[in-house]
Design brief:
Elements (H helix, E strand, L loop, with lengths): L1 H42 L8 E8 L6 H12 L3 E10 L1 E3 H15 L4 E10 L1 H6 L4 E4 L4 E3 L11 H7 L23 H25 L4 H7 L4 E3 H6 L5 E2 L2 H10 L8 E3 L13 H10 L9 H5 L10 E3 L3
Parallel strand pairs: 1-2, 1-9, 2-4, 4-5, 4-6, 5-8
Antiparallel strand pairs: 3-10, 6-7
Helix pairs in contact: 2-3, 6-7
Length: 318
């Protein structure tokens, strides 16, 4: 009888263990299915297998973005994309970053109608990108403009003097590695930097004049760094209409795009790694932990990415 009782206890223990592992396996499988579904249906930037209007968000500080360029090219070659909405909310960024995206949007516009929808802000390089679209829609209170280029650099020479730090250097020529944060700039250095800025500025103004059907002088008059509300931008011909996504869709309809097509956002599926760590899964995890929305990198969310801009920048407030 003792042996039978022991056997009974062992069997119950075994059943409990089996039940535990079955439940654990089911939970893991369910989590994998959910993660895969989220990745495939939400984070897969290839959009939809049926005709649709593609939407691309361009947000935050603009830098050289190879993934975005590839995404725009994929949209251009997709037979299911009938029109494109660029949703822009950016203070600008590097001039090269704006230039590369501008060129990609112009290439895209050669095959499909493209409309820019300005949210809160499309300034400097953000406006540069918006101007690449065939039509620009902005809210009445959106901020638009800040057409221009700048270079900023610190001067810590006073701090070095206070700390008793001296810098010695041997240069091949007077303008090598200038301007430098370790000493005040001289007239020759400032003149060199100004020529650099004015050349890119001239190119930027030329883009605005060409895309907005203005004379160069008309564009130059608006390119003093000023920002405008959406209503002011409309009066100055920097945008074509006031409104939001519906107005953007309405314009696409005038270009032969069915206004009843679904708008599908093409996203960056790789921003946060593989599908188990997709953008949507990161958001869920962040909410569970009581953290801010994890839709972007921490540095991006804090705005600290602007601290690392280098070279010529076209940005409202670096």
């Amino acid at each position: 009888m003792a042996m039978r009782a022991d056997d009974l206890i062992d069997r119950r223990r075994l059943r409990r263990k089996l039940t535990f592992w079955r439940v654990a396996a089911f939970v893991v499988l369910a989590a994998a299915v959910i993660a895969f579904s989220t990745w495939f249906y939400d984070d897969n930037f290839t959009g939809s297998a049926v005709p649709h209007i593609a939407k691309v968000k361009i947000e935050g500080t603009i830098t050289e973005d190879e993934e975005l360029l590839k995404r725009l090219e994929a949209i251009r070659t997709s037979p299911e994309v009938k029109g494109v909405i660029l949703s822009i909310d950016s203070p600008g960024g590097t001039t090269v970053g704006g230039e590369s995206i501008f060129e990609a949007v112009r290439k895209l516009a050669g095959d499909k109608p493209v409309v820019a929808e300005v949210g809160t802000l499309a300034a400097s390089a953000g406006y540069m990108i918006a101007s690449a679209a065939d039509h620009i829609v902005a809210r009445k209170t959106s901020i638009v403009g800040s057409i221009g280029v700048l270079i900023q650099y610190p001067d810590v020479s006073g701090l070095m003097d206070k700390l008793g730090i001296k810098l010695e250097e041997v240069k091949s020529s007077p303008l090598k590695a200038s301007p430098s944060p370790f000493k005040p700039t001289n007239d020759d250095e400032r003149a060199m930097v100004r020529k650099l800025i004015l050349d890119s500025y001239d190119w930027f103004v030329g883009i605005v004049a060409d895309r907005r059907k203005m004379t160069y002088d008309q564009a130059l008059a608006l390119a003093d760094g000023s920002i405008f509300t959406g209503r002011q931008a409309l009066a100055n011909h920097l945008v074509d209409a006031v409104g939001g996504e519906q107005e953007a869709i309405d314009w696409l309809a005038t270009k032969g795009v069915d206004g009843k097509l679904k708008v599908v956002e093409w996203k960056d599926k790789d921003r946060h790694g593989g599908f188990l760590f997709s953008q949507s899964m990161a958001k869920v995890a962040a909410k569970a932990l009581g953290l801010p929305d994890a839709g972007g990198d921490v540095i991006h969310e804090l705005g600290a990415d602007r601290l690392f801009l280098d070279g010529l920048v076209s940005v409202w407030h670096p």
